[in-house]
Structure formats: C-alpha cells, structure tokens
Amino acid sequence: MAKVVTTIMLPLLLFLLMFCISLNNGGRVHSLEESMVMLNHAQISRRHRQQQHSIQACILPDSRRKNSAIILEMKEQEECPPPEEEQQKIKIDYWKKRIMLDDLRVRSMQNMFQRIMSSNNQNLLSLEASKSSQIPLNLGQNFNILNYVVTLQLGNQKRTMIVDTGSDISWVQCEPCRSCYNQKESLFNPLTSPSYQSVPCNSKPCQTLHNTNQPIFCNKLNNYNTTCDYVVNYGDGSISMGELGTENVTLGDMSLNNIVFGCGRENKGMFGNSSGVLGLGRGPLSLASQGSDKFGGVFSYCLPFSMNGETSGSLVFGDEPLAFNNLTPIAYTKMVQNPFLPNHYMLNLVGIQVGVLGISIGYGREVVIDSGTVITRLPPSIYNMLKEAFLRQFKGYSRVPGVAILDTCLDLKGTQQVTVPNIRMIYEGEEGNNNNNAVLNVDPSGVLIIVREDGSHDLKFCLPFASLSYDHEVPIIGNLQQRNNRVIYDTKLSRVGFAKERCSFNGMVS
C-alpha cells in the first residue's frame, strides 16, 4: 500500500515532502520535476513577499461578508516577515521545541480534566446520597507558535490572536502592563478606546466566571466600585492575569457589542508574539457563546498548511455554505454532552483507518477536538494500534529513535518518492448509525512530518500522533490532523461537521 521509491539526495526529499506530498484515493506521489518546479515557485514568491511586506503584513486583511456569514482570514503567520538573519534559513528543527511546548499544554489540560472530574465525582456522590464573517486564519510560525491566528478589531484597535476552541476567556495584553511578553503589535490601550468598560465585581459576567471554577478577585478602584480581576492559568506556567472588561468586537461589518474579555496585565507562557487568545470554547464567556445570536451559533474554520506562507485559511462566523470551498459533502457527528467537561467540544471516535487497515474502537471513545493543541494524543491502547498499522505501510525501512513525544520515526534517506497512507478518523454519526458516520480525512501534512534534532544534520520522518500516559486520560484531536478540512461547530444543533477543503481565503469573494 505504501511503497517508497529509492535514491535521491536528502535535501530534495525534504522539499518533496514539504511541498509535494498529497493524497488521491489512498496516496499520490509527485515526480522530481514537479517538485523542483513547485519549490522554485515557492522560493521566488517568498522572496518577493519579504521584499514587499513590512511589519504591517502581520495584521491580516479585514473580514469579508458572504451573504449572512462573516469570513476572517486565518494564517500560519508566515505572511509576517521573519528577522533578516532568519530569512535564508529553512526551519526544520522548529518542530522539536514547539512539540515540547505542545506537550506542556496537553499535560496541563489532562491535570485540569482530572481535577474537574474528581471534584464532580465527589459532588455526584453527595447528590446521590442526599437524593437516595470570514476572516483570514494563519499558522503562527512567525509568532513562534504552531497555532493559528486571526486579526479582528477590538474597540478601535486591531489585534492578532490565537484561535483556541479549548478555552473560553478571550484576552489581550493591555497597558499599563506589569509583566508582558514581547508581541508584534502594540499593547491594547483601554484608555484610548471610548467603548471599553471595566466589569464590576458584583456583575453577572463576574459571577458567571466564578461559576465556571475560574478564580476571580475584586480590586477596589475607589470607595464604591471594584473591578473583576481574572486569572487564566494554563497549568504549565502559561498564565494571563488582569481585569475583565467589555468592548465592541468588529468582524467585517458585523459588530458584537459589549463582549466580555480579559485585559491582561501580567501574561507569560506559550503565546509566541501574538497579542492574546481568542477563546471559542463552549463556555458562556467564549466569543462563540457571547456572539451566538448574531451568527446563529455556528462557526467553522479551515486550517491551512503552508511552510512558505502561500496559502491562507478562513474562520467563518455563520452557517453559510457559499462561504465554504468544501470538496466533499459535510458529514456531521453529534457533540457528546459530558457533564464533567461541559466547556469542551467532545466527540465519539469509533474507528481509525490507516490505508486499507481498519482500527475499531468498539462503542467509541470520547475525545476533545481542539484548535489550540497541535499533535493529536490518543490513549496507549489506541495509539499502539495506529502505530502498528502505520509501520506496516513502511515495511523494509528502518525505524530511528523518536523526538520528544513522537516515538514513531523512520529513516528515509535516499528515498525519491513517498506514498503516504491515508489516515481517516471516523466519528459516530448524528443518529448513532454506523452507516452515517462522519469522517475526518487527515491531510498528508498531518500524517508524516520532518524533524531534525538540534545540532544534527540527520532528518527524521515521524508520525505526528502521540500516546497519552494512561488509557483513562482524555484523548485530544490536535490542529495538525485537522488541516485542509472544513470543521464546522454548530452549537445550536450540538454537532460538528467535517468536509475536505483546500484552504484558500483568496478564493472567496466578498
């Protein structure tokens, strides 16, 4: 199923995989000639952009409207020009450091899940006893992260923020800042925005935050009023602290008034050089929930893959099929209602297919789908079956030691062409009918990645999935495996949809 044709210089294999691996009914390979043409085009285009763009290129284009939908461009942030000394470098080994940071995020999420479920289990025992527009979306490589960012207007200032369906509170770094990390844009200044208001401590939003188990503090401004101070602690050392405020958020010609967000005064951690986080979780204070009435409770994204900044994806607010460029029909799976983790989007994973090999998961396994996690994490029992099926596609090729959390890596030196096995993640259909399952077709960039150890010239070709420590931990579907798919979150009908799509913001019309 997965045959590899041999003999070519190693650098050419690198470019072959970076630019040319694609799938068509189980696997397709490009010729060396095709690879070199595409590589040359990419290099010329990138040099031209670097010459033409200033730091303003880090701010993505304005939102667009398509009928009732608002579309924001979503990019890998490769449009932002890197420092002069890095412009000629091809970053291969950036994976290792970013994956280690991603692992910290997942560990902190697992710790949080365990604390919440343990606490809720105790509460349940007590109860039982007592009862007897479309916007551009880009990968944030130039913000030193592997997450995706969009630019929106907060009050009268544009902000570029990480898109995170795994958290609720949206926040940006604010002046005056007691402790802030470096960001590409200026700090948000609430004093220069006529629509900004502080959230009082006795207000409904502050109480809502308290009810979601987030710590709050009351900071006395004068003898009569107090502000609602928040703390978002990501558990791995990443943190944002500040005051809750309300502000108008503008997406194209759609205005969301009095949106509650965090004005961060102390922030540190895994945020790269972005201005903050756009929380799109299921909680009541996420932007998805606060703006639900405006865009019908539906938002979606197409996450692009581009190592050279050629493509953009989109973040769409509203249920407007004409805003999508999907190549396959949309198939929906129901959201799982988990009382312990109500603020996360949870689905029932019932199987995985690797090439022609199928992995059945019986009645299924509840998983979190998260745009803020990079690498998909699976329980050891499921991951080991995936790994075995993957390696069977590469018989005859040597395994090499893994890198960080990636333990399934190959030595493909001297290889000219690679057929990448198709990986399909199968979710329970809306009605629980196995004949109506929803399938997430993993893009080739989420099946095989290139990693180089620090200080080494050897390249490793790794399966970008990883195992959790224990079978009882909560699986997470990361953004690397969601690329080049339209992923639709319909909170009103409690479902998530998947369709194959070539992410291209430029292909959309206003």
UniProtKB/TrEMBL annotation:
Keyword Signal tagged: yes
InterPro entries in the record: Aspartic_peptidase_A1, Aspartic_peptidase_AS, PEPTIDASE_A1, Peptidase_aspartic_dom_sf, TAXi_C, TAXi_N
All residue ranges annotated as the Peptidase A1 domain in the record: 148-499
Superkingdom of the source species: Eukaryota
Signal peptide as annotated in the record = 1-26
Provide the alphabetized UniProt keywords.
Signal
Tell me the protein family, please.
Belongs to the peptidase A1 family.
Q: What is this protein called?
A: Peptidase A1 domain-containing protein
